[in-house]
Automatic annotation (TrEMBL):
Keywords, in A-Z order: Membrane, Transmembrane, Transmembrane helix
Official protein name in the record: Uncharacterized protein
UniProt keyword Membrane, yes or no: yes
Transmembrane feature ranges: 39-57, 92-114, 154-172, 184-204
Length: 214
């Protein structure tokens, strides 16, 4: 039961993100606001579904928890947040799944907003095949990846790979004019570079722990 609960954010974000990529090309012409609206709905649904699953798949039916009162419930909520963080830091596959779902929805939103409204500002980038949405999503991946270096785990590598995959698929699926080869190459280089950075950070951290132990 605990594993299902901790995995629920990855499941929710992956399922909704995959449905968005599958249905958006057909649905956006019929939806007022087009792709940004669909992406916004998807993000909201991902968050709501995650919160619902985290609250529903728990031990609330345990008599001991029911008798613990509000103080215990608050303490349990804190423990759940810490457990979720620890789970995704240490597990590569769930982190990759979560990264994929986040990137799919965020990239769709960026395509619908940035590639339309900022095209003139990034005219040169558009000519060489780099979209404003790709710049924004690359920056987001860099920020989230660097933030994980302080608490490095297998989740770092899974997050980077899953995020890159979700962003690439969203670009290819939702933007018919995207330069596929440049997009795939760019994200591959970025992901490998982050993996190398994570590996180096892991070795440095391991050496520090050994020196402290000695």
């Amino acid at each position: 039961m605990r594993l299902y609960r901790l995995s629920s954010p990855a499941i929710a974000f992956t399922v909704i993100g995959a449905l968005l990529l599958l249905l958006a090309p057909v649905a956006q012409p019929t939806v007022r606001g087009g792709l940004p609206t669909l992406a916004g709905y998807a993000l909201a649904l991902q968050v709501v579904l995650t919160l619902f699953l985290l609250a529903a798949i728990d031990d609330l039916q345990d008599p001991k928890m029911l008798a613990a009162g509000r103080a215990q419930a608050a303490e349990n909520s804190f423990d759940i947040r810490r457990a979720v963080l620890t789970f995704y830091v240490g597990k590569g596959l769930p982190a990759a799944s979560l990264g994929f779902g986040v990137a799919a929805s965020m990239t769709a939103l960026a395509i619908g907003v940035l590639d339309r409204d900022l095209a003139d500002l990034y005219h040169y980038g558009m000519l060489v095949g780099i979209r404003p949405s790709e710049i924004a999503m690359s920056a987001l991946l860099l920020v989230t990846a660097v933030a994980q270096l302080r608490r490095l785990g297998n989740g770092f590598f899974g997050w980077c790979g899953g995020f890159a995959l979700g962003s690439v698929l969203a670009q290819v699926r939702l933007d018919a004019t995207v330069a596929v080869d440049i997009t795939v190459l760019g994200w591959t280089v970025l992901t490998v570079a982050l993996w190398v950075l994570g590996g180096l950070a892991g070795m440095v951290g391991s050496r520090r722990r050994r020196s402290r132990g000695a």
